[in-house]
Write a structure and sequence with these properties.
Elements lengths: L58 E5 L30 E6 H6 L15 E5 L6 E5 L2 E2 L11 E5 L2 E3 L2 H4 L6 E8 L13 E7 L7 E9 L3 E13 L2 E12 L3 E3 L5 E2 L2 E12 L5 E12 L7 E5 L12 E2 L5 H7 L8 E2 L1 E13 L3 E19 L9 E19 L6 E21 L9 E22 L4 E24 L9 E4 L2 E19 L2 E12 L20 E14 L4 E23 L3 E23 L5 E16 L1 E3 L1 H11 L6 E3 L10 E9 L1 E3 L3 E12 L2 E2 L8 E2 L2 E12 L4 E8 L7 E7 L2 E6 L4 E9 L1
């Protein structure tokens, strides 16, 4: 789809609703023992991921912010603590929790906004498209065709979204986000190697509430959220929420001065909860989102086709679509790079208390229609212009049974998960200005995929302080690629007919994964844990710019053996929390976007497997509440990765040999022992102080900051290196003590740092996508 997939050589002939969860006043639950599942009065779990009552044990890092009163929350108090998540402090395996207030404070309206809020997490747009790629602890897939299983799975209310476009859609009316690290799938959903992004949206309430928020900032950006929630009867509740986002475009066309990047999107979500009896809860949900935004623009780093000078300002961009390309793709003359995306879906979430266990099911259907028009060379020339049209739908069904009594020595859950996706994609590339490929190309295909998983998880209380854990999962993934066609529209300088049809290709993966762990509560406020987990991810296809059948050979599955140890602790009557972990990953068959040499054509993009890599790192979090109202947070993450066994096409050597001999020869370079280029150091922290103004008002100043080390996605070429950057946000919020409304002002990226969120390759060139500049704004929130 995007430039990562393209031929890279120069070889000729080729609202959030502003519900402010009370953080400083949140308390531990009454049950402070060590169960795997703690039940609420409604029979639902009070902890765990994606709404599953027997979620995997986890240590949670919580992004904390200034407190407020949340009319939709029911808290059970025993003793106050500033950080919450007390039960989770007694369970192992790391999870970063980002609450709804923090999401609103950082204007997180899609998953790209999570990157600087969780350690060792990278969320990058695929080129300038609306699809996203995730990397967690150095494990991820740069999926330029969005038709492969990601290494990091995104869930929304328990529904897995394995397509990058779906995962990158809007986030609004949020309850919170959990970022879980390491191989997963032992307690729910699909098996993946890197981890999960678990997004939870707000549920209906049993009392009537409504509210709105408005956030206005520079570049005419506006984010509006609305919601209403309450009972329809004694056993039926509803919630309706909507949002819209406009403006915010900060890029300029270097040739014409036109602006680019303005948002124009909105969405609706409705939920109805029904309790036919005191043991059953059924939630019906529906969602719709439309995105007609301008696309992000690429900025030129290297142009080997037309020798366009490198853009010194990464907020400059350029575009120039040929009339023939716009006509073929059905776009109007004068069209800017843009999106035209529609997403909708529906689901049913059922839970039933069976007495000895909880039965839960999730049924969901999601549909997307994506049209992205992009200029990936970032110049006025038609070197690498893309038009992507992808229609896809997803059906998923999960059934799960989990032990109910939290005091039983053996906690367990078992379940099954099924999903089916159907995709049709048409990709147009305009190379007519490249010099080496003077044609417009069209690639189209269909892909059907289905996966069936079975899993089980146990947690045994050996003694009061010692617990053992075990889990197993099996997944079968079957996918078919068919109706694959690549054709070229002839031009005066390229009269050669080219219309290739390729036969059906299949890829079947059947694998088991397992895990084992130990938790030891050394003291009441100190726990140590360790685990070994084996995860895998199925293979897939390179479905873009296909010119020879060999490009359609599927990649092999990848696997990850993860070792992790850690500790969790609270001190000084829960005024300081200190958590830490260390991990070691043995990575086999890593799927990456690589290169291949095609005889009589040139160098093309193709997914390949890296035989062996290793990643290791440490993470630490410190939360402090030294005096009432003052909350401090600091997270430190450090990781390193090296290729142990990896040889890749050396496109420079291939080009030099072709110039010298006239022959295309596959020449390789060994990257054994070479650094993988993942950001080594990540820091994120915050400080806020909730000051009382008399007896009725509060004033809360805050400061957030993050640091991200340099990143090199393509080894051996520093033009792909994204320099390290440091971001700082400041703000001030005024509110009544009741918390029913608030008024705030802020400056994000106050230092106006220029940074890149991705750097990728296009035909005969390299381009980058910039991060957001300084944004000055204000926000108003009301909740009644």
């Amino acid at each position: 789809m995007t430039a990562t997939s393209s031929e890279t050589g120069v070889v000729p002939g080729r609202p959030e609703m502003f519900r402010l969860n009370n953080i400083l006043l949140c308390t531990s639950a009454l049950v402070l023992t060590l169960p795997a599942v703690a039940a609420t009065t409604s029979g639902k779990a009070v902890h765990g991921t994606k709404g599953h009552p027997a979620a995997p044990p986890s240590v949670v890092r919580v992004r904390h912010v200034a407190p407020s009163s949340d009319p939709e929350s029911i808290q059970v108090y025993r003793r106050k603590n500033a950080f919450g998540q007390m039960v989770m402090q007694h369970q192992g395996v790391s999870v970063t929790h980002i609450d709804s207030t923090e999401l609103a404070r950082h204007q997180v309206t899609d998953v790209k906004g999570l990157m600087n809020l969780a350690p060792n997490l990278t969320v990058q747009p695929q080129g300038s498209s609306s699809a996203v790629n995730f990397t967690l602890r150095g494990v991820g897939l740069n999926d330029f065709t969005a038709n492969n299983t990601p290494s990091v799975m995104t869930y929304v209310d328990g529904v897995a979204l394995p397509i990058g476009y779906m995962a990158g859609a809007a986030m609004f009316d949020m309850a919170g986000v959990d970022v879980s690290t390491g191989p997963s799938g032992f307690t729910h959903g699909q098996t993946v190697t890197a981890g999960e992004i678990n997004i939870k949206t707000a549920d209906p309430t049993k009392t009537f509430h409504y509210g709105a928020s408005e956030d206005i900032a520079t570049y005419d950006r506006s984010i509006t959220n609305l919601y209403v929630s309450g009972p329809l009867s004694s056993n039926v509740q509803y919630r309706i929420a909507g949002f819209t986002q406009q403006g915010g475009g900060f890029q300029k066309n270097i040739n014409t001065g036109q602006s680019l990047g303005n948002a124009n999107k909105g969405g609706l979500r409705a939920k109805v909860a029904w309790q036919p009896d005191d043991r059953t809860n059924i939630v019906f949900s529906g969602n719709w989102m439309q995105d007609d935004s301008q696309a992000m623009g690429a900025y030129n780093i290297q142009d080997l086709a037309r020798n366009t000078p490198t853009y010194q300002n990464n907020r400059n961009t350029g575009w120039g679509f040929t009339p023939d390309f716009l006509k073929i793709t059905g776009n109007s003359a004068g069209t800017k790079p843009s999106y035209n995306n529609t997403f909708w879906g529906a689901g049913v979430n059922f839970t039933r208390n069976l007495g000895f266990a909880d039965l839960s099911t999730i049924s969901a259907f999601q549909q997307m229609y994506v049209h992205n028009l992009m200029d990936l060379d970032g110049t006025r020339y038609a070197i690498y212009d893309d038009d992507v049209n992808t229609d896809a739908n997803l059906f998923s069904q999960e059934v799960k049974l989990a032990s109910r009594n939290p005091h039983d020595r053996l906690q367990w859950n078992v379940g099954m998960y099924y999903d089916r996706t159907q995709m049709h994609s048409v990709i147009y590339n305009d190379y007519t200005g490249s010099g080496s490929r003077p044609y417009i190309q069209r690639t189209s295909y269909n892909q059907d995929q289905q996966a069936f998983s079975q899993y089980g998880h146990l947690r045994l209380t050996v003694t009061k302080r010692l617990h053992l854990l075990a889990g197993i999962t099996h997944e079968s993934d079957d996918r078919d690629l068919y109706n694959m066609q690549t054709m070229r529209y002839n031009t005066a300088v390229y009269p050669t007919p080219f219309d290739n049809h390729y036969g059906r290709r299949g890829a079947l993966t059947n694998q088991f994964s397992g895990m084992g762990g130990i938790e030891y509560q050394a003291l009441d406020n100190l726990m140590f844990y360790g685990s070994i987990r084996k995860g895998f991810k199925p293979g897939g296809f390179t479905a873009n710019n296909t010119v020879v059948a060999s490009q359609l050979n599927p990649t092999k599955p990848e696997s990850l053996l993860a070792y992790e140890v850690g500790f969790k602790s609270d001190y000084w009557n829960h005024k300081i929390r200190l958590n830490g972990d260390a991990f070691w990953y043995d990575y086999h068959g890593q799927q990456v976007a690589g290169l291949a040499v095609v005889s009589n054509y040139g160098v093309v993009g193709q997914y390949v497997n890296i035989p062996k890599s290793r990643i290791w790192g440490v993470e630490m979090e410190i939360d402090a509440n030294p005096i009432p109202g003052l909350l401090l947070h600091q997270h430190f993450g450090y990781e390193r990765g090296n290729y142990e066994d990896y040889s890749a096409i050396d496109s420079t050597a291939v080009a030099a040999t072709y110039i010298r001999t006239g022959k295309l020869v596959a020449l390789y370079r060994s990257y054994a022992g070479v650094d993988m280029g993942i950001p080594k150091l990540t820091l994120e922290g915050s400080a806020s102080y909730r000051a009382k103004l008399g007896t009725r008002w509060t004033l809360t100043p805050y400061l957030d900051y993050s640091y991200r080390g340099s990143q090199l996605d393509v080894p051996g070429n520093n033009l792909y290196r994204m320099p390290a950057y440091f971001l700082m946000d400041v703000g001030l919020t005024f509110a009544p003590k009741s918390g029913k409304w608030s008024l705030g002002a802020y400056v994000n990226n106050i230092l106006d740092r220029r940074y890149d969120v991705t750097r990728q390759t296009g035909l005969n060139g390299i381009f980058g996508i910039p991060g957001t500049p300084r944004m000055v704004g204000g926000r108003l929130r009301v909740d009644f």
